Amino acid sequence: MGVRMNHRGLKALRLEDSVTARALRILPAYSAYKETYTLLKRSRRWSREELAAYQAQALSCLLDHAYENVPYYRRVFRERGLVPGDIQTPEDLALLPFLTREDLQNNLADLKARNYPEAAFEYVTTGGSTGIPVGFYYEKGVSRAREWAFMKTQWDRVGYRFADRCVVLRGYVVGSAEDGIFWKKTLCGRWLLMSSHHMTEETMPAYIDRIRKFKPRFIQAYPSVAVLLARYMREHDIEPFPTVKAVLCGSENLYPWQRDLLTESFGCRVFSWYGNSEQTVLAGECEESTRYHIFPEYGIVELIGRDGRPVEGPGAMGEVVTTSLVNPICPLIRYRTMDVAILGEGLCTCGRAYPMLERVEGRLQEFIVTKDHRFISMTAVNMHSDVFDNVAQFQFYQRKEGEVLMRVVKKPGYTDRDTERILRELDRKFEGDVDVTIRFVGTIPRTPRGKYQFLIQDLPLGQWGISV
Ligand SMILES: [Zn+2]
After folding, report:
1. How many domains does one find in the chain?
2. How far is the CA of 288 from the centre of ligand 1 (A)?
């Protein structure tokens, strides 16, 4: 609330002094950051009961606010004959409907909170590497600062400090193939952004040389991009970068084989988190474990099965449905992320009482469907296995149940023997229930954001999720 008042006050000030004006403009961002970071430092020691009490209170504030100020939710409550007081705990959320991406797109204007000035809305879209991009709103200057406080809290667990040098491999396009410079520095020279679009067998030595000279303490990367570098290093017996303390992996699911390969090639901790740009869920590993610890202050997470009800018991898998507690300007309640995860059990040795996800299996669109309609996660395909030694890149494509096309970019040493071994390995993974056809291609294009997609799924698996 204090943050919003600052924002409004700022408009009325009309300061002549540009330096003061600039200082005040960053004030809402700074207080959002500070407030959140301080809360997270305190709440990491809270018990389950204390966290539940915090969440119940935050949920009650959110629902009161949504009912009062957000036309979409006023309608949702009225249609069901409900008032915010009917929902006291996260379990009671089941009284409200799910919010799909389509609902979000079709009702965006009505999801804007009326008690914020127009100038406070920042329009943001998701990447849309799978499916249609989705648009929503952040609170200008505040949402990103708050997010950064959560990220910094996670990275603190592997010793990240503001002054640290960081190489960022996240698909930024900088420079051009002609001038041979595929990177640039930002944040007063502390971050080196490197384009994944130009990474090839030919340019990789220059990348490695530049990273070594930059002496980064951390590498931030999309897993699919870090893997390109890691594979090259392993194949050419290149020593890990001695200064790198951890590889920070986000924005894509990190498959177990990718973790193994990155750990081996970089010789350091691989730290991963799971979140979305809609800011409804954030969960990260801790100092002691690779399970995803869900921030209860960030959002409420439900895992929902195909029957539309919460999944139960160890190893149960469900779609991640989330209620954001951090973005009141455009509230998303019971938002279907289309991601699938497995519930974690028990407590972690780190002492945080956060709920956990054992694993994130990936997006619904990242499953292969067998002849008998089973869903096989891409986590099952281990590209780190030596079966793929002579494969430069691969991508699956499915448009019919029980059949996949595998596009393969060969390395020079590739022979028919490799084809046989790959087919045998996949037959084992898919338990004979998926027919695989291999097609050799020259390249596999990256998405506009520079990621590699291991599977293009043309079956409408979104409908596999919970019924709406
Ligand atoms: Zn832990």
Report:
1. 1
2. 6
Compute the distance between CA of residue 309 and CA of residue 302 in angstroms, rounded to an integer.
9
411, part of any domain: yes
Query: Which pair of structure tokens corresponds to residue 431?
Result: 């338990």
Mean pLDDT of the chain: 88
Q: Identify the three-state secondary structure at position 197.
A: coil
124 or 385, higher pLDDT: 124
Measure 58 CA to ligand 1 centroid, in angstroms: 24
Q: What mean pLDDT is predicted for residues 187-195?
A: 88
pTM (two decimals): 0.83
Find, among 465, 403, 467, the residue nearest to 439 by Cα.
403
Q: Count Cβ atoms below 10 Å from residue 346 Cβ, excluding itself.
A: 8
Which pair of tokens denotes residue 373? 């309609």
Residue 365 resides in a domain: no
Checking if the pLDDT of 346 tops 60, the result is: yes
- Residue 140 in tokens: 């200008």
| CA distance linking residue 155 with residue 285, whole number of Å | 9
Any idea what the CATH number is for the domain that residue 425 is in? 3.30.300.30
Looking at the predicted structure, is the pLDDT value of residue 362 above 70? yes
**Whose structure tokens read 């799971």?**
274
Q: Separation of 286 CA from ligand 1 center, angstroms?
A: 5
Choose between 129 and 289: higher pLDDT: 289
The token pair that represents 104 in the structure block: 């979000």
Cα 33 to averaged position of ligand 1 atoms, centre (Å): 23
Does a structural domain hold residue 387?
yes
3-state helix vs strand vs coil in the chain, percent to 5: 35, 25, 40
User: Which residue segment(s) compose the domain that 393 sits in?
Assistant: 370-464
Give CA separation, 395 vs 197, 229, 383, in Å.
17, 18, 11
pLDDT of 3 strictly over 60: no
Does any domain span residue 332?
Answer: no
Distance CA 468, CA 308 (A): 8
Q: Tokens for 89?
A: 């705990």
Q: State in Å: Cα 149 to ligand 1 middle.
A: 19
Q: Contact, 430 vs 403, CB < 8 A?
A: no
Q: Tell me how far the alpha carbon of residue 55 lies from the centroid of ligand 1, in angstroms.
A: 20
Strand 335-343 and strand 356-363: pairing? antiparallel
